Amino acid sequence: MSRIGKKPVDVPANVKVSISGASITIEGPKGSLSFTHRPEVGVTWDEGEKSVTVSIDEKDMKNKPVRAYWGTTRALIANMVKGVTDGYEKKLEVVGVGWTANVAGQKLALKVGYANTVEVAIPTGVNVKTEKQTITVNGTDKQAVGQFAAEVRSVRKPEPYNGKGIKYTDEVIKKKQGKQFGS
Fold first, then answer.
1. Can you tell me the distance from the alpha carbon of 129 to that of 163, in angstroms, rounded to the nearest whole number?
2. pLDDT digits (tens, 9 = 90+) for 128-147
3. 108 vs 15, 128, 155, 168, CA distance in Å?
4. Mean pLDDT of 164-170
5. Model pLDDT for residues 24-45, shown as the tens digit of each residue
6. Which of 21, 71, 92, 183 could form a disulfide with 4 if both were Cys (CB 3.0 to 4.6 A apart)?
7. Which H, E and C letters describe the chain, residue by residue?
């Protein structure tokens, strides 16, 4: 039994859920998200209890991949509900003297110690704001927000000697000592 899969997903009153075949669409104040689930998994919407229930057949209880789809489907639906109500946000810091980040149209321009400015395309559904040396990435889709933040970080990962680079605000960089001269 999947401990995560058998829990129903509670849906707030201001969120609409519609299921048609294997596709589920969730609309809320922040936007709309849709997802097509695996055919082995069944998703039902209970209007009275305002909850989404995910289930699998009894014959598939011993099948490990199907149990994994069960829990994953439930987690993805819960993330969609949270995304359309509250949204997701990641914050990054640009650490380095003279290093900057600016939003130019649908691109994020990064000056991070290379000869040229590195431009990263901002995907649809993701909003980016920059203040001094802080980059704020937010949106309704958890996967898209996390993926874009990871792509921005990969432009110049933080290095362990001086701590320069692009890092998450809550990330701790363990500094190395470096070489000792004249000992």
1. 23
2. 999 989 999 999 999 999 99
3. 32, 8, 11, 16
4. 94
5. 999 999 999 999 999 999 999 9
6. 71
7. CCCCCCCCEECCCCCEEEEECCEEEEEECCEEEEEECCCCEEEEEECCCCEEEEEECHHHCCCHHHHHHHHHHHHHHHHHHHHHHCCEEEEEEEECCCCEEEEECCEEEEECCCCCCEEEECCCCEEEEEECCEEEEEECCHHHHHHHHHHHHHHCCCCCCCCCEEEECCCCCCCCCCCCCCC
